[in-house]
Amino acid sequence: MKKVEIYILGGFLGSGKTTLLQNFLKEEKITNRKVAVLLNEIGEHSVDTDIIGNETPLKELLNGCICCTMKDELEIQLLSLYEQHQPDVIYVETTGVAHPIEVLDACLSPVLAPYIEIKSIVSVIDSKRWLDRDKLSLRLKKLLEEQVRHGDHVLINKVDLITEEEREYIQREIIEINPRAKAHLTNYSNISIKELSQSSRSSIDNHEKLHVHNHLHIQTMTYQFQGPVIKEEFDEWLKNIPESIYRIKGFLQFRGDEVYTYLFQYSYRLPFFFPQSIKFPKNLVFIGKNLNKAIIKEELMQLEQNAKRKVMM
What is the pTM of this model? Predict the structure, then answer.
């Protein structure tokens, strides 16, 4: 089954995200791919809606930030775009104060994860603002650097406003903060989608091999349970997973308690289980660094087999 590609366009306020989105939409129009857009704005009104036009399916998340207060709504809107329009690609333009990993987390709904592929996090920086970032509050400066740290591609934008020496200086800083990202010097966020697809992310392929030229800083995977597991064994498994797994969320069932599907949330090594009366798809979504997907899959399959054997005894 072909998955819907998702590109997350992030970066600080005024860096050039909307211009980047416009450039991508123009390029996509030539390819005839079906495109949808999800816009997130802190304010009560989006000034970018008219720019997108009526031809492209659009959903808006206003008066809040995806990574803070609107995760549930994002899931609903993405699901709506997927079901109503069956796009080939969805572009998610975040607010200027969004943290990339929180946005990635919000996009990876356990319900949607089997049907989407996060292709890239694109972080856009305003080169002048970057050079002057020490004038920002400590919190905003940290956010600006975090947006760079977690991008698969970093656009050093508005380079016509700085000197050659300043360009080289910024490039060195970007490489120091995020050596895995590919940095691009741009004006008006002018870059081709093809240049970004050269280091795409992986979602569910458990046989993926990472090459030296294509290391991914943050990876994701989805595991689809075929049956229940024994809760005590699952709890024991959680105690031994590597610290490189930052986040797990999804749904699963426990042997002897199949009346409920449990919503499972795991972050900062703390697990939470919430019983759900609705039978959700039993998918677990993982977010982490250098995930050993083959081992994770093998261990979870073993948990399922153990539960199945216990029933047969």
Answer: 0.76
